[in-house]
Design brief:
By secondary structure, the chain is mainly α. It folds into two domains: 247 residues, Hypothetical protein af1432; 175 residues, Hypothetical protein af1432, CATH 1.10.3210. Helices cover 60% and strands 0% of the residues. Helix 2 packs antiparallel against helix 3, helix 15 runs parallel beside helix 17 and helix 23 packs across helix 25. The two termini are 24 Å apart.
Length: 460
């Protein structure tokens, strides 16, 4: 366990870190960046109109920003079920009344296997319909349970975790996962559901469409009293002007309950990095615990290379979050049971730049954003996303790159046979001096020998 170092971060608010990371959740859900932050603005304004007791505001604030914490956990299943880009299928679902069988069937027909032949699409449609509501409930349950689990790992208020779990409950009892009805649904969850729906329809179709959807779903999806409380908000032109600001995070921060603003510290940064590594690794069944495995190995290599405690601390966080950009890549590519074609590879190669863009949004993570985004760089300059030559790659980057390659080779993958520890090292040895730093590779061998580290897939 790394000790606390000089990297104190108490000039940062926890909410700023979480809000910046919510952009990754927006990508995973197929929503425009800033969706969660704007939903937060709507939900907090609604809480004011409802005169929600102020002691519930902190839980609501974090729940609004992190309502989609569990979104990656069912991405692979959605992709497989529909034979489609999970982000597009998820994004389209946000505008559908999926509790209506007619609208649900229309949604399925419009989203299954879009690139397939008519016969294949028909078969996929029949397969989805045959699985019916039971499959839908399973997907929502998976998402809700995972979201609540990660919220607790982040040590957020218990009411935040509970609210996230009940995000998709409906006022009439036809929601998921527990068919809660009326006031049995936590009040924070009711605000979340309404706020995110208003944001989606406002963003796609404008203010009148957002107003109309609340009227249409009043008493079915939404608490009637909350729909009524939206009236003064819909009529507030200044508020919607703020929603159009280029940086919705800064606008959302203005709604944070002043008496509950919390400063972050090293432990907070570590906790958020670990929590979001859980989101990242849930995106694909083939990357279970990949980020934590890479972090353990990278820090072990870094210690062998003589990195300072501060450098090791940054390396650990960078390793935990190095693949956050993969949340913006379809599972059609991530889970493909064969080698990627040129177009797919080009998309996959964008994920380090996505990682940089996400982490670079806030000071607490900006310090290691370049390091995290450099995990596919090579000594010969043929890596990505920047294609940097070896002399521009510091020890921490070399350690992370070797750790990532080692863990990925040791892991199970859908397109190749499993590799033994000896086979993994043989492959890495062949690339030493060209792609892999020989010094970092020797440090890896020393770390494995001393720690008896066993990659999680090989431990069974």
């Amino acid at each position: 366990m790394l000790r606390r170092t000089e990297d104190t971060s108490n000039d940062l608010q926890i909410s700023q870190l979480i809000a910046a990371m919510s952009y990754a959740l927006d990508m995973t859900e197929g929503q425009p960046q800033g969706h969660s932050a704007r939903s937060c603005m709507i939900g907090m304004r609604l809480a004011y109109e409802l005169k929600l007791p102020e002691d519930q505001w902190p839980a609501l604030f974090y729940a609004l920003l992190l309502k989609d914490l569990g979104c990656s956990s069912n991405a692979s299943k959605v992709c497989y079920l529909f034979g489609a880009d999970d982000r597009i299928a998820k994004g389209n679902l946000k505008t559908v009344d999926w509790s209506s069988r007619v609208r649900s069937l229309r949604y399925v027909s419009e989203n299954v296997a879009p690139e397939a032949s008519a016969l294949q699409r028909a078969r996929q449609f029949i397969s989805v319909v045959a699985k019916g509501p039971a499959k839908a409930r399973e997907l929502v349950q998976l998402r809700c349970d995972r979201g609540a689990t990660i919220a607790r790992a982040l040590e957020l208020p218990e009411a935040t975790a509970v609210a996230i779990r009940s995000l998709d409950e409906h006022w009439n009892g036809n929601g998921y996962p527990d068919n809660l009805e009326g006031e049995r649904i936590p009040v924070v969850s009711r605000i979340l559901n309404l706020a995110q729906t208003v944001e989606v329809f406002w963003a796609q179709h404008g203010i009148e469409a957002a107003r109309q959807i609340t009227i249409d779903r009043r008493g079915s999806w939404f608490d009637p009293s909350m729909v009524d409380a939206m009236d003064p908000i819909f009529n507030d032109e200044a508020f919607w002007g703020r929603m159009l600001q280029a940086d919705p995070i800064q606008e959302a921060m203005k709604f944070e309950p002043a008496q509950h603003i919390l400063a972050s510290d090293d432990a907070t940064l570590d906790r958020i990095a670990m929590g979001f590594s859980m989101v990242i690794d849930a995106k694909s069944p083939w990357t279970f615990c990949h980020s934590t495995g890479v972090a353990e190995v990278a820090v072990g290599i870094g210690m062998q290379l003589g990195l300072s405690m501060y450098e090791l601390q940054q390396l650990n966080r960078a390793a935990l979050l190095h693949d956050v950009g993969k949340l913006g890549v379809s599972n059609l590519i991530l889970d493909k049971p064969a080698k990627l074609n040129a177009d797919e590879l080009a998309v996959m190669r964008k994920h380090p730049s996505f990682t940089f863009d996400i982490l670079n949004r806030v000071d607490g993570f900006r310090r290691f954003s370049e390091l995290a985004a450099s995990h596919h760089e090579r000594l010969d300059g043929r890596g990505y996303h920047r294609g940097l030559p070896g002399e521009m790659l510091p020890k921490a980057v070399r350690a992370l790159a070797v750790a990532d390659m080692y863990e990925a080779l040791a892991a199970k993958r859908p397109y190749r046979q499993d590799l033994s520890s000896e086979e993994v090292m043989t492959i890495l040895n062949r690339d030493a001096g060209k792609g892999v730093c020989p010094e970092a590779l020797e440090a890896l061998k020393a770390f494995v020998a001393e720690s008896h580290f066993v990659p999680y897939q090989l431990a069974a």
